[in-house]
């Protein structure tokens, strides 16, 4: 991961923690993919994809969540859940998107 990606994840983590989410894992790899952040919000497990783009060219950060990327996220989350101790909690997928110098966009419950 490059410095810009690490900075975006750090900023996303600050944003999510300020909103009350609690970190569980970071940069977890498995199932053919990587989960940038895994957090809990109450009893819900939240898989967070962090996307950063220098500009809105080509649709920006949110548009970079391609079908193949979403499939890799789904497979990685399934692999992560196989390691979860106890009953599988409710889960959702979120994205935190950074476009240039604009404030981040937190997209809750994205469709995979």
Automatic annotation (TrEMBL):
<dbReference type="Pfam" id="PF02021">
    <property type="entry name" value="UPF0102"/>
</dbReference>
<protein>
    <recommendedName>
        <fullName>UPF0102 protein DAI18_08140</fullName>
    </recommendedName>
</protein>
<dbReference type="InterPro" id="IPR003509">
    <property type="entry name" value="UPF0102_YraN-like"/>
</dbReference>
<dbReference type="GO" id="GO:0003676">
    <property type="term" value="F:nucleic acid binding"/>
</dbReference>
<dbReference type="InterPro" id="IPR011856">
    <property type="entry name" value="tRNA_endonuc-like_dom_sf"/>
</dbReference>
<dbReference type="InterPro" id="IPR011335">
    <property type="entry name" value="Restrct_endonuc-II-like"/>
</dbReference>
<comment type="similarity">
    <text>Belongs to the UPF0102 family.</text>
</comment>
